[in-house]
Amino acid sequence: MDFRGRDIISIKDFSKREINYILNYAKKMISYAKGERCIETLKGKVLSSLFFEPSTRTRLSFESAMNRLGGSVIGFADPTATSQKKGESLADTIRMADAYSDVIVIRHPQEGAARLAAEFSDVPVLNAGDGAGRHPTQCLLDLFTILTEKKKIEKQKVVLLGDLKYGRTVHSLAYALSLYGAELTFVSPETLKMPKEVVNECRELGVEPSSTSNLEKAIKDADALYVTRIQKERFPDAEEYNRVVGTYKIDNDLLKNASEKLIVMHPLPRVTEINPEVDRTPHALYFKQAFNGVPVRMALLSLVTGRKL
Amino acid sequence: MKELKIPLIKSGTVIDHIAAGNAVKVLRILGIPKTHSFTVSVAMNVKSRLGKKDIVKVENREIDPHEVDKIALIAPKATINIIRNYEVAEKHKVELPDEIVGIARCSNPTCVSNHNEPVESRFTVISKDPPRIKCYYCEREPEDIAEHII
């Protein structure tokens, strides 16, 4: 399968077969991602890391992935230090990154920014999150985490919890899990329910998600619980945020009733939604999930630059 | 003898089979009355074989294909009749192309196409009748297309 020159903008641009290929290829990257072995597959290649919005995991794991593959990274994590401050358009910034590097990673607050970037760039563009829009590499690492922990994604019982309205990761994930025929349960405050379009997409793929506000019951025989933060920055109204923050909390007391096999995932950062006491239980998978960003992003960088292991 | 509700025109365009109640939206798309001084006749809720419909007649002006695309967004069943010397010189149904560019603005205020970038708005047509479009950039589907036509 040839991904050379391909942009990674939305998970919907990929077939299930292509996703499987990426996930299986990412497995080969694990030992390199851990630093147990060294490679120089991308030696001489340069990554432009353009972060117009704050990020810890996505940016660091992309940069780690490029370095682990022997490539190098240029870019910024604070757009106030760039010509954007002088009013330069995103299109022109992308033209520059295109001239200076072999692959571009972009996070931007405006929805559709990565799609626009791909229009102005000849080198592949990887979307690292565009506003409340898409975040395909997060989705791939979430699928990778389920695959490596559960050995398969098909038919898994997955509970998506928290901000299902504004949370960009859960929209892509619900779609992607539906490709695999997963059993989906949505748990959220009434005002943060999964948008109708996303539910319809799941239905079109043959999955009928259920919705409930009873978390305890939902996780009783679930395989995975995917928790999201109620994101203050996405709320148009501070009052609405204050009404719903802290509605659900994951702690050891709640997990007493959960299935033993339940894994708890979170795209991080977490604030108060998962009590740190859960970190020490076998349910806690979120830090490993964050690590998985490295092999998955290594796989993508290797595939789109056409330099495979 | 049937009474003629709208007079015949010598030359211009007759837009027929507009879904009842949508004639005003079609006029807005054509920039009437703001930008033109042509005589325009509008008939609303006209009885026809297929139920009620609206008709718009614009004298001395033949509408161009770009405008036809816009009309298809509002009135997917409309027919365009070009009249020359009281005769129908051309007649065709409107048809939405698979992609529409520069015709409607994205309804999402945080979409990159609504900011200072050198691109035109761009939509993928997901359904021609009823018309449904999705922003190429942010994938948002506007609820009321007419509201966002440029």
Show the largest interface: A-B, 20 and 18 residues
CATH superfamily of the largest domain in chain A: Aspartate/ornithine carbamoyltransferase
The H-and-E topology of chain A, N to C, reads as HHEHEHEHEHEHEHEHEHHEH
> What structural class do you assign from the helix and strand content of chain B?
mainly beta
Low-confidence stretches of chain A: none
Outline the biggest β-sheet of chain B. 5 strands, antiparallel
**Count of distinct strands of chain A:** 9
Record field, number of beta strands of chain B: 8
Number of domains of chain A: 2
Shape of chain A: globular
Oligomer: heterodimer
Write the CATH architecture name of the largest domain in chain B. Answer: 2-Layer Sandwich
Number of helices of chain A: 12
What's the CATH class label of the largest domain in chain B? Alpha Beta
In CATH, the architecture of the largest domain in chain A is 3-Layer(aba) Sandwich
CATH superfamily of the largest domain in chain B: Aspartate carbamoyltransferase regulatory subunit, N-terminal domain
Helix content of chain B: 10-25%
